[in-house]
Amino acid sequence: MSAQTRKLGSSNSSAPTSGFLRPRPLLATCALLIVAFVFGGGGVRYGLANLLVQITALGILALHRDAFLTFWKSSPLPLRILTALSLLLPALFLIPLPQAVWGGLPGRDLVAQSLEAIGSGGWRAASVDPARTLVALTGLIVPLTVLAVGWTIPRRHLMTVGWLIVALGLACFALGVLQVLSGGNSAVIFAERGPTGLLYGTFANRNSTGVFLVGALTLAALLPLPLARPHPAGLPVRLGICALLLLAVVLTRSRTAFVLAAIPIALGLARAFWAWRGARSGGGSGRGSLAVFGGIALAVIAIGSVVAIAPGRIGETIERFEATDDARVYIWEDAAYSADRFWPVGAGMGTFDEVFQVDESLEFLTKRRAGRAHNDYLELAIEAGIPGLGIAAGWLLLVGWLSWKAGRSQFCWPAWGCGALLLAVALQSITDYPLRNQTMLAVAAFALLLLARVASAPDREPTR
Predict the structure, then answer these.
(1) Quick check: pTM over 0.70?
(2) Phi/psi class of residue 197: alpha, beta or left (left: φ > 0; alpha: ψ in -120 to 50)?
(3) d(CA 25, CA 14)
(4) Which of 5, 361, 369, 458 can pair with 409 through a Cys bridge, CB separation 3.0 to 4.6 Å?
(5) Nearest-angstrom CA–CA distance, 160 and 336
(6) Are 190 and 203 spatial neighbours (Cβ–Cβ below 8 Å)?
(7) What are 138-189's pLDDT values in tens digits?
């Protein structure tokens, strides 16, 4: 390792303190990701589990104040602005306002009439349900901690954190196998009313499980191996891990995850082709080319093995694409009405469930509550109106800009893998709500962290 690399690595670490509680950003970030993986996959219904993850994050922030300040001083300005706006938006909905102000906001007439009926009124927050908005605000503590504390970690160590997420994906698969084999009667962490005998892992929603596994698959395909020097077993081990994660995606029977799995497969093949092209233009030996094409062949064999192992599951997943009785279509119709009623300000972050029960059509009522809009952009329009959609658009543009800047770095493929992970989350948000649990918020924050770190200094910290 060069002296310049050692110097940069030391400068990116938070200032050490004496004693047992010496801040170690790398270990703290890994610990938070593990805690979020174990306890944070249930969503808003599991408040105590979420609270445990958030208290862990607050403790880490308290021990890494220098790292937190370093993030706000040295990270790219657009990243800081969007982070601040994302925190500010739910906070603004909690500021008490006089009745003449909050009562004049769109959609507040029913709240005003209800308070008038019980003889109440006066100053009140702009949110129609301040408690729900407070929960939404506290949910941002975990991704903020991952982003801020992780900013001081050298990039070569961030690759190690990425492999931790891959390992968590394999743990999710191992737990899910028990769930599948038992028909959903054992090893279930969050007992939701849904199809049994599927792979849920540590999540309550199999679609969230699916996108998490797609993210782990992407990292497994594109991260540099954590080895001091190349090893002949490296490529077969990588492809074996990818095959297991791909099988796990199939076992979730999540249609969106099944489609999104094409992103890491395509990126892996593109990387192999790029390496082969570089070997040819550089006059390298045919041995390197043979290894690359051997890897492609092994990838095809791995996919074929998944098809052979779980043909029924694949067929069931494909059949679900033909379903015409998807209740989400009816939810979207009523949710669009809610969005129009509170447009352009929104009802307040986290308030969808309360608002939707008022606007849900009688002909679409079922025994179960919708809970979510099953379209995060539509739900964001209801809860935050134009400001919320504007911030979401800003995040999408930032990911695209950072991915373009990362193309100049030797770490471009890991960075693009993180961009692909965030793209998968954005695409699944069209039909689901992947970022409504602490686990995926932490994973998405890590992907953004690695992407931003590579893009902000593309020529530093050369690979080993």
Answers:
(1) yes
(2) left
(3) 7
(4) 458
(5) 43
(6) yes
(7) 999 999 999 999 999 998 899 999 999 999 999 999 999 999 988 877 788 8
